[in-house]
């Protein structure tokens, strides 16, 4: 009697488990039939964010191109790093596109796509920190990183080699937040992938990449184990956009010239955005909307031309915020090139 009852209980739980598994599995044909594919990603500057009601981000645009390739709409979810794998395995998303490094530990629990970008872990410090110049300088130092990240894995390996680095592994703090803390001198050392560091250096010019922590690694998208049909489609897509130039177009939009860094130029830019742009932002937006331009492109042009100086003039004869030539002023009916006004 006891054995029979036990067998029934085991059978019951197996049915529940198998039923749950069936609920989370979705084939490629199911995705196409539903007309929607769901991406799980991070809410940050290099993955996905909303700016002025516009959805943006490198991973978001790559994923949008993938959805277009499949002929479906893209649905975005940002469950947060600690819950991302669980959300995938529970069927709350179809794939993860979050600039995640392909590592042996992660490959034990999920399936990765082919590489779409090569990166390298970099030790991040404040530019005024003279103590950290090479790997040996980390011995005995405190490094802040996110728990269970690829950086965490690498630092644990170094400690096995005898470096005795003091690790503070945070559960929820993002790499971008650690970079901000470095810039504000709240912490001394963190680690970031090179693409994240280069992009965030434009926002926090006082950080410095001291040295690489390891060899180059690869970023990949993630699907649940066994989702070979979807994985093959992702790999075919990645190969296609590398060949037809789509990947390069999206890459340039977010990472063009990030490796060319002018510290004083970036500092001046931040100062201008805070102190000078507000005086002209409404005018730029109004005129940009009238003629169908992205106002940010026009604002960037104004900064490039005059640094938001309405009285700016050049030895070549151009004048004003947009550095207008005398000939152009005549053709456009502009009487005073120094005047900021709405026509």
Task: Kindly describe this structure.
- With 343 residues, this protein is α/β, with parallel strands linked by helices.
- Helix content is 44%, strand content 18%.
- It is built from 14 helices and 13 strands.
- The strands form 4 sheets. Strands 1, 4, 5, 6, 7 and 13 form a 6-stranded mixed sheet that branches. A 3-stranded antiparallel sheet has the order 11-8-12.
- The radius of gyration is 25 Å and the shape is flat.
- Residues 1-24 have low confidence and may be disordered.
Write the layout of secondary structure elements.
Layout: H1 2-24, H2 28-34, E1 36-40, E2 49-51, E3 54-56, H3 58-70, E4 73-77, H4 84-89, E5 95-101, H5 104-107, E6 111-112, E7 117-119, E8 121-126, E9 142-146, H6 150-160, E10 166-170, H7 175-183, E11 190-193, H8 194-201, E12 207-212, E13 217-223, H9 228-244, H10 246-255, H11 263-275, H12 281-291, H13 295-306, H14 326-332
Parallel strand pairs: 1-4, 1-5, 9-10
Antiparallel strand pairs: 2-3, 5-13, 6-13, 7-13, 8-11, 8-12
Helix pairs in contact: 3-10, 12-13
Reported for the largest beta sheet, the result is: 6 strands, mixed
**General form:** flat
In percent terms, what proportion of residues is strand?
Answer: 15-25%
Mean pLDDT: 85
Q: Order of SSEs, N→C?
A: HHEEEHEHEHEEEEHEHEHEEHHHHHH
Structural class: alpha/beta
Give the N-terminus to C-terminus distance in angstroms: 91 Å
Helix tally?
14
Poorly predicted runs are: 1-24
Number of domains: 3
Number of strands: 13
Assign the CATH class of the largest domain.
Alpha Beta
The CATH architecture of the largest domain can be given as 3-Layer(aba) Sandwich
Alpha carbon gyration radius:
25 Å
In helices, the fraction of residues equals 40-55%
